[in-house]
Amino acid sequence: MFPLSRLHYQVKGEGFPILCLHGHPGSGQCMSVFTNYLCQNFKTIAPDLRGYGKSYAKTNFEITQHLIDLETLLEKLQISRCLILGWSLGGIIGMELAIRNPEQVAGLILIATAARPRSNHPPITWQDNLYTALAGVINYFVPGWQWNIDTFGKRSLFKYLIQNHTCATYQYLAKEAVPAYLQTSRQATRALNRALIAGYNRITELPQIQSPCLVLAGARDHHITPESSQETALNLKNATWQCYPNTAHLFPWEIPHQVIKDIKNWIELTIEVSHLLEN
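Request: output the structure for the sequence above.
Response:
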């Protein structure tokens, strides 16, 4: 058993709740790029999924256990209806929750994710791993150092995760990505890999999601291609799709202000439309 008390989560702000779900590897803290702003108008809940961050897991589990954990968490917090914002794996889990509990999900914000995720990541070489290790270690101790970015960062695997090699983006990598990577358990990695190897595909179930959706993608995302994100948007009944040029899988850390602005605008429009329909 995995007691709910082990599921670590952060709550910020007041108002209509937004459940913010991180990717792999990740943690609730990685969602601060969203929660630090959205908490000004909403209540944000950012859990560490089972096996990630401070939600320690000692035994193997299946990816569907995340759904049970989150359903239990929402019940504990007495949240009967919420928006869900999911990044990468978090978006997949968000879609699963919307399929399982349509009455509970007021809307979905899907970041760099897909119901049938596809990758076009180039083969990884030993030089890629070497430069990534050097860039990551140096950046951890000296976040955003331009020399490290130019010398190692742009030649490392970071080049497939980001396109804008700015100091601010590398500070996110140092402060949030590295700790999350180190705290991601092998049990969490195993659960995700088993789902992917089995050929995860929920395209045909997407029409069951009636709530409005915002689907955002990076034009140069190699981990979950923008084409697979667009396919997801096209199969949702009520979706808005937007693709940001010259960005990759971590685009919220590349262009945070633009992403937050677009999300806030969409939420405001969605809530306004919902009120009109209710009246």
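Residues 4-121+184-278 form a domain with the Rossmann fold fold (CATH 3.40.50.1820).
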